[in-house]
C-alpha cells in the first residue's frame, strides 16, 4: 500500500451478501467449494483493542489439509482453470477484486475489529487487495512462450505451465493484502490454491472464498483453511501433493518451511521480514522525511515487514530529526480501530497482547543498553496498545538496531558521512527495503546501488506499487512478489522441439 491510496470506501454493494450466507461462512473453512468445520476444534477470535469476542473460527487438522489438497488436485487434473483461454481466466481474477470493492465496507469493519488497525487503514487494505486482482487479471494473457531457431529441420518453442497446487501461508499483519498478493498471481496463471489463514485474524480471509464463487471460479481453485502453524501449517507445507509454497513471516518459521518443502523438492517464495533503514543526508528535506516517518513506522502500528524501523541521520541534522520525530510521535493518538474512520494522526492496537509486550520489552531492553526513549514506549493497561515510540542514542550494535520489533518503534542512529551510514544500513542480517532522503540525486543513486536491499526508496517510503517487484536479500528471504516477476513463481517452462 502507499500513502497516496484512497481512504474512502467504495459505494454501497450492488450485490449485497445475504445475512444467512454470511453467517454460515465466516468462521468456517472452505474446501472444494464447501464450507466445513475443522477437525482440530475452534479458537476464539477477539478484538485486540477491547478483548471482546468477535467470532469462533474452525481449526483445520491434517485430515482437512488432505481434503484441501485432494480438492485442489482434482481441479488441476480437470484443467477446468488452466485449460481456459487466459483472457477468460483473467476476467475471473478481476471479478474477485470487483467483489472486494463491492463489499468494501463490511470487509473493512471485520478486518479492523480482528486486527486492531484503524478502520481507514482497513479500507486501504481492502482496496489494495482489490488492486492485485485487477493487475494480475490483466496480466493473465501476457504470459507467453517464445520460439527458438534451430535451423530449417526443427521447430522449437517454449510454453509456461502452471506449477499445480500453490500452498500459501499468510501472515497476520495484512491478512487480506498478503493473501491477494499471492492468490491473484497464482490464479491468473492457472494454479489451484490453498490458503492457510493466520490464527490471530483469520475471519476476513473467508471473503476470498465468497469472491471466488462470485467470480465463477471452479470448485477447488480457492481453498481457505485456518489452523495452528505447528499443526495445519506444518501439514500443508510438508504435504507431498503440493507443488509450491509461498510464505511471509519470521526467519525461524521460514527456515522450517523451506526445509519441509525441500524434503519433497518443492520450491518456495519466502519473505522473512526486515530491519529497514532510511539514510538521511544533510541536504534532505526534513519536512518530507517526517511525513514519511509517519507512514514508514507508525502505519499499521509498525507491523510491516518493510517498515522504516531505523533512521540513520547525518550528525549535522541528527538532533533536528530526533526532535521532529518525537514531536510527530507525541501527536499520534491511539484507540480502538473501529472508531477511527478518518485518516489522520491516529493508530490502532497491535494485533495481540503478546505482540505488544514483545515490542515494549525490546524498548525496555534498548533503554537498559543505553538508548534514550524520547517519545512513547508506554503500554496501555487495557488493550494491545503501545504509544508511538522514538529512541535516540541508538548504537548499531544494540539489539534494537539489529532485531525486528514489528511494532511502532523508531530507532534514530547517528552517522558522520555516507560511508558510515551505508555500513550501518547494511550491517544487519536483513535486506528487504532501504531508503535515502537527499536532494542530491547522484549521491542518492550511488547509495541505492550499494544498499543491500531488494527495493530502495528515494525521498518517499513505500513508493512503487503492485507493479514493482518486491523481495529481500540475506535473511529477508528469496523470490520476488509483485510486478511481472511474481508471475514466474507460479509457472514452469517446458520446451517442445519438433523435427520437421
UniProtKB/TrEMBL annotation:
<keyword id="KW-0560">Oxidoreductase</keyword>
<comment type="similarity">
    <text>Belongs to the aldehyde dehydrogenase family.</text>
</comment>
<dbReference type="InterPro" id="IPR016162">
    <property type="entry name" value="Ald_DH_N"/>
</dbReference>
<dbReference type="Pfam" id="PF00171">
    <property type="entry name" value="Aldedh"/>
</dbReference>
<dbReference type="InterPro" id="IPR029510">
    <property type="entry name" value="Ald_DH_CS_GLU"/>
</dbReference>
<dbReference type="InterPro" id="IPR016161">
    <property type="entry name" value="Ald_DH/histidinol_DH"/>
</dbReference>
<feature type="domain" description="Aldehyde dehydrogenase">
    <location>
        <begin position="35"/>
        <end position="496"/>
    </location>
</feature>
<dbReference type="InterPro" id="IPR016160">
    <property type="entry name" value="Ald_DH_CS_CYS"/>
</dbReference>
<dbReference type="InterPro" id="IPR016163">
    <property type="entry name" value="Ald_DH_C"/>
</dbReference>
<dbReference type="InterPro" id="IPR015590">
    <property type="entry name" value="Aldehyde_DH_dom"/>
</dbReference>
<feature type="active site">
    <location>
        <position position="271"/>
    </location>
</feature>
<dbReference type="GO" id="GO:0016620">
    <property type="term" value="F:oxidoreductase activity, acting on the aldehyde or oxo group of donors, NAD or NADP as acceptor"/>
</dbReference>
<protein>
    <submittedName>
        <fullName>Aldehyde dehydrogenase family protein</fullName>
    </submittedName>
</protein>
Amino acid at each position: 500500500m502507499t500513502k497516496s491510496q484512497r481512504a474512502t470506501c467504495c459505494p454501497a454493494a450492488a450485490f449485497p451478501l445475504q445475512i444467512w450466507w454470511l453467517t454460515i461462512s465466516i468462521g468456517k473453512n472452505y474446501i472444494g467449494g464447501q464450507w466445513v468445520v475443522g477437525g482440530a476444534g475452534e479458537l476464539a477470535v477477539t478484538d485486540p483493542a477491547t478483548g471482546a469476542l468477535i467470532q469462533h473460527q474452525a481449526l483445520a487438522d491434517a485430515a482437512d489439509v488432505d481434503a484441501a489438497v485432494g480438492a485442489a488436485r482434482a481441479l488441476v487434473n480437470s484443467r477446468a482453470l488452466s485449460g481456459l483461454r487466459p483472457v477468460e481466466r483473467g476476467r475471473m481474477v478481476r471479478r474477485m477484486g470487483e467483489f472486494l470493492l463491492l463489499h468494501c465496507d463490511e470487509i473493512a469493519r471485520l478486518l479492523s475489529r480482528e486486527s486492531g488497525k484503524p478502520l481507514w487503514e482497513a479500507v486501504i487494505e481492502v482496496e489494495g487487495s482489490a488492486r492485485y486482482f485487477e493487475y494480475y487479471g490483466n496480466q493473465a494473457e501476457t504470459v507467453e512462450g517464445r520460439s527458438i531457431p534451430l535451423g530449417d529441420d526443427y521447430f522449437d518453442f517454449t510454453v509456461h505451465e502452471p506449477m499445480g497446487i500453490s500452498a500459501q501461508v499468510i501472515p497476520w499483519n495484512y491478512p487480506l493484502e498478503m493473501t491477494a498478493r499471492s492468490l491473484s498471481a497464482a490464479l491468473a496463471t492457472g494454479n489451484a490454491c490453498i490458503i492457510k489463514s493466520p490464527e490471530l485474524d483469520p475471519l476476513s480471509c473467508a471473503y476470498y472464498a465468497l469472491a471466488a464463487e462470485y467470480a465463477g471460479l471452479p470448485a477447488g481453485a480457492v481453498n481457505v483453511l485456518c489452523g495452528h502453524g505447528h499443526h495445519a501449517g506444518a501439514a500443508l507445507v510438508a504435504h507431498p501433493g503440493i507443488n509450491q509454497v509461498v510464505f511471509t513471516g519470521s526467519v525461524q518459521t521460514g527456515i522450517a518451511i523451506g526445509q519441509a518443502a525441500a524434503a519433497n523438492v518443492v520450491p518456495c517464495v519466502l519473505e522473512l521480514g526486515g530491519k529497514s533503514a532510511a539514510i538521511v543526508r544533510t541536504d534532505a528535506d526534513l519536512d518530507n522525511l517526517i511525513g514519511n516517518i509517519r507512514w514508514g513506522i507508525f502505519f499499521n502500528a509498525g507491523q510491516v515487514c518493510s517498515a522504516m524501523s531505523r533512521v540513520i541521520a547525518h550528525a549535522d541534522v541528527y538532533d533536528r530529526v530526533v526532535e521532529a520525530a518525537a514531536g510527530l510521535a507525541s501527536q499520534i493518538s491511539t484507540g480502538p480501530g473501529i472508531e477511527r474512520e478518518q485518516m489522520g494522526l491516529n493508530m490502532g492496537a497491535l494485533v495481540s497482547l503478546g505482540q505488544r509486550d514483545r515490542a515494549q520489552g525490546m524498548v525496555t531492553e534498548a533503554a537498559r543498553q543505553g538508548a534514550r526513549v524520547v517519545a512513547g514506549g508506554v503500554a496501555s493497561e487495557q488493550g494491545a496498545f503501545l504509544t508511538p515510540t522514538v529512541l535516540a542514542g541508538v548504537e548499531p550494535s544494540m539489539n534494537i538496531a539489529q532485531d525486528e520489533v514489528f511494532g511502532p518503534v523508531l530507532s534514530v542512529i547517528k552517522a558522520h558521512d555516507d560511508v558510515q551510514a551505508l555500513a550501518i544500513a547494511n550491517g544487519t542480517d536483513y535486506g528487504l527495503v532501504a531508503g535515502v532522503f537527499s536532494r542530491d540525486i547522484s549521491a542518492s543513486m550511488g547509495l541505492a546501488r550499494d544498499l543491500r536491499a531488494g527495493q530502495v526508496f528515494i525521498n518517499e517510503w513505500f513508493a512503487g506499487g503492485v507493479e514493482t517487484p518486491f523481495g529481500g536479500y540475506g535473511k529477508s528471504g528469496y523470490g520476488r512478489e509483485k510486478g511481472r516477476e511474481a508471475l514466474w513463481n507460479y509457472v514452469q517452462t517446458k520446451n517442445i522441439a519438433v523435427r520437421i
